[in-house]
Design a protein that fits this description.
CATH class of the largest domain: Alpha Beta
Order of helices and strands: EEHHHHHHEHEHEEEEHEEHEEE
Strand order of the largest sheet: 9-4-3-10-11-13-12
Shape: globular
CATH architecture of the largest domain: 3-Layer(aba) Sandwich
Strand content: 15-25%
Number of helices: 10
Number of strands: 13
Number of domains: 2
Low-confidence stretches: 4-20
CATH topology of the largest domain: Rossmann fold
Largest sheet: 7 strands, mixed
Length: about 290
Amino acid sequence: MIWTKTEFAVPQLLSMSVAQSLTLTEREFATIAALARKEFGLELGKGKEQLVAARLGKLMRELGFASFNDYYLNLQRDRSGDALVELIDALTTNHTSFFREQAHFEFLVQNIFSDYDRRGHLRIWSAASSTGEEPYSIAFIAREHLGATSSDLPRILATDISTRALDAARKGMYKSDRFEGGVPPWLRKHLLRGESRWEGWYRIRPEISAMVDFRRVNLIEPLPDVGRFGVIFCRNVMIYFSRATQEQVVERLATCLEPGGYLFIGHSESLTGMNHGLEQIQPAIYRKRGGKR
C-alpha cells in the first residue's frame, strides 16, 4: 500500500444503502422496539415501522435468516454481544461528516484553544464518534492551531456503541467520494492519498491518528472511569433517546466535565428543562459552572 501527501477536501455525508422491506407484525415491531430501548436507549416510536422493517430485513438476508422468529431466537441466544452490535448498526445511520456544524469548531478555536496555555493539559471527549470524522476534525484543528509538538496537544477520547463504526474509525481510511468541495491549504498536510490499487482512497496521517484513543462506550449504561474532560462533544445522538434517557446521559456527561468545561450538543438538540448544572453559552454549547473564565 502506498500513501502520499494530498489535499484534504470537505467531505459529503455518508451514503445510505436502501434495502427492500421486510413485513413485520405489530408485535414483532414492538419486540424490536423494546429491545432497542432497553439495550441502546433508542426510541423507535410510531412512524418508524417501515424504516425498521427495511433495515432489519436487509440484516436478516445478510445473516441468512428466513423469518423474524429465527432471527430473534439467535439474538437472544448470542452471548458474545456481536448480534446486538449488528442490530444497532442496522437501526442507526452512523450519519456524519468532517467539520459538521462548523460553528462549534470555530468556538473551539476562538474560545478554548486560544486560552489553552492557561487551562493546562486539555482532554477532549468525542462521546458519539461514529466512524471517526468528528474526533479527527478536532485533531486536525488542534494540531494546526496549537502547534505540532505532541506533548502540547490535547488527548482525544473517541467512543461509540458500535464496534463496526469504531473499527472503521481506527483505520482512518475514507473513499474519495466521501470528500467534496474546495481544499483549504492548511488541511493538505494531514491526509495521505492511496496509489495503485488504493487509488481513490484517503488515509489520516499517523500523527493525527496518534492523538485519538478509540473505545466502546454505551452512553445509557453507567460510564466506565474515563476521567475528567475540558471539552465533551456529544452531538446528534440524544435525538434518538427518550427525554428520561437524555437527562440521564447529560447528567453523566456533566459529571465528567471539569469545572469550566464545555459540552457541545447537536443544533437539533436541546437541554431546556433539564436539571444539569450547566449554563448555556451559545446555541448547542454549554459550560459547567466553576473554573476560570
